[in-house]
Amino acid sequence: MESDSTHVMLAIKSQNGALLLEFDAENLLYADLSGKELPNAEFCHAVLFNANLSRANLANANFRGANLGSCNLQEALLGKAIFKGAKLEGANLTDAMLEKANLSTAHCVKANFTGANLRLADLSQSDFGQAIMVGAHLDSAELWEGKFAHTNFSEAYLVKANFLKAQAQSAKFIKANLDKADLEMAQMGWADLSHASMQGALMRNAKFPSADLQYANLQQAYMNQAHFNQANFSGAKLQGVKAFQTNFSQANLKGADLSRASLQGAVLSLANLENANLKGADLQGAILKGAKYNDNTVFPSDIKPEQQGLIYVKIIEQS
Question: 232-269 pLDDT, tens per residue?
Fold first, then answer.
């Protein structure tokens, strides 16, 4: 950005100093750069509040520390762009291309990333609270230690995404694909993961109290020492899960398929096991006292429910 004695002249340059665009303006607030060709542009610490950058080519651009609050970046090309420490609160990035972009430590509260491409992007240690990520593509993205409270990831693609130690309390992952995602030590209390696919996901030491996992597919997931107390697994697929010393106390596992699950030392006290399938499950050392079951509950051959302190619930025929 440059100026002379008569008026303010703004120059947008590339990171190697080449002039990309020059125009008269006091600042970039409300600036209209829609559709412009600005690859490699330098916007470090720039103030672009409410600016229009929709459909602009900003590949490899540097927005480090910039203020892009309420900015329109809809359908912008932002592959490998740098937004480290930038402010994007309330920004519109619907259908934007952000593959391999760096948004680490960015402030993206209430931003809209619906349908955006964030494959291999770095969102680590960022704040996406209440952001909208519906249908976004985040395969293999880095989201570790990020803040995602009340964020909506419904129908998003998060295959192999890294949520290590992330905070996603009350977030929505309805019908999202989290296959082989890393959720170790994540805080997911009260999150809605109903109908989500989480096959082979890593969930060791994660906390999911009161989470909604109805009809979720968690086959072959690794959830050793995780906490699912009072979680709802009604109708969920849990075949072959590894759940050593996992806490399912007071969880609703009604109609869940836990066949061949490794549940050694798991806590299932006061859980609802009505209509659940535990055929071939390993329940060695598991705590089952107070759990409810009925005639449709299938136990491993070595488990005698009446000797484990389980509570029998009679099936009431519907008239």
Answer: 999 999 999 999 999 999 999 999 999 999 999 999 99
Distance between CA atoms of 184 and 179, rounded to whole angstroms? 14
Q: How many DSSP H helices and E strands does the chain contain?
A: 0, 5
For residues 304 and 146, give the distance between their C-alpha atoms in angstroms, rounded to a whole number. 45
34: tokens are 């829609």
Question: How far is it, in rounded angstroms, from Cα 163 to Cα 152?
Answer: 15
Reported as a single tens digit per residue, the pLDDT across 201-221 is 999 999 999 999 999 999 999
Q: What are phi and psi of 62, to 5 degrees?
A: -110, 110
H or E stretch covering 12: strand 8-13
The pTM for the full model equals 0.92
Name beta bridge partners: 198: none
CB 50 within 8 A of CB 69: yes
